[in-house]
Structure formats: C-alpha cells, structure tokens
Design brief:
With 148 residues, the protein is α+β, with helices and mostly antiparallel strands. The chain contains 3 helices and 5 strands. InterPro entries: DLC_sf (IPR037177).
C-alpha cells in the first residue's frame, strides 16, 4: 500500500513542478521607464508602450495605439466592452477578425492566440497588458493587399 501512495505522491509532485515550470518559461518584456504618457478615458493619464509585435507594419501599430487611447479607460468592469470596441475598430480598418485581450497578469498573454496568429501587437498600458491579434482561420490565405 505504501508503494502506491509513494507513486501517487511522486506523480503529484512531478505534475506540480511541471505546471510551475511551464508558467515561467516564456519571456514577457517589461515597460521601460521613459514610456510616453496619454490621457485615456478622459480622466486617467497612463503610459502606453509597444512591447512586442509580430507581422505588423507601422500603420497597424498606429491604428492600434489610437484605438487603445480612444477606448481604454483602466476600469476593470468595462474591459470587455473596451476590448470589443478596440477589436471592432481594427476590423473596420484592416478587415479579418481581431482578438483583443486586456490582461492584468503579464504571464497570461503567452498562453493565448499569439501561438497561432499571423500578426499580433502587445502593448503595456499602465498596469495592464493589451494584446491585439489577428485570427487566422484554418485554410485561410494571408492577404497580400492589406498593409501588414
């Protein structure tokens, strides 16, 4: 009986260690001290900085930054609506489907759409990380006419 208990204990310890190791195996850049500050939500002044981008041109970065400044308020209860508004603005300009996530924990970003997206942007906005990523459906062809 003790060998079964010992096996279960070892299995549990291994699983726990594996989970902790997997959480911290991705690098998420930090906001620099000299980030430019913006007035968001007509009330709050926060720093907004592009931390990472993949597959996106400067035009995409500029539109995303303007959408964040226009819609992001730092009020957690309205973050779902803010994400929807930012995504809608990206879809109007560039087409396709855009996922927008507002994260208060930087490690959550690494386990989202970034693994399968053809282009994404990661912004630091105050104490939050805002991820904008274009959804590429299975079998879809990447557009050669859009400004990416």
């Amino acid at each position: 009986m003790s060998s079964v208990l010992w096996s279960v204990t070892l299995f549990y310890a291994f699983c726990t260690l594996s989970v902790y190791a997997n959480v911290y195996n991705r690098y998420v850049p930090q906001m620099s001290d000299g980030a430019q500050q913006y007035l968001v939500g007509k009330k709050v002044r926060i720093s907004i900085e592009l931390l990472a981008k993949y597959g996106a041109s400067q035009q995409v970065v500029d539109v995303a930054k303007r959408a964040i400044i226009k819609h992001f308020t730092t009020v957690e209860v309205s973050s779902g609506n803010e994400a929807h508004e930012i995504g809608t603005e990206m879809e109007k300009v560039f087409g396709g489907f855009w996922m927008v996530g507002i994260f208060d924990n930087q490690f959550d970003v690494a386990y989202t759409i970034t693994r399968r997206s053809p282009r994404y942007l990661l912004f630091a906005a105050g104490d939050y990380n805002i991820l904008l990523a274009e959804e590429l459906t299975v079998g879809a062809k990447i557009s050669k006419t859009r400004p990416f």
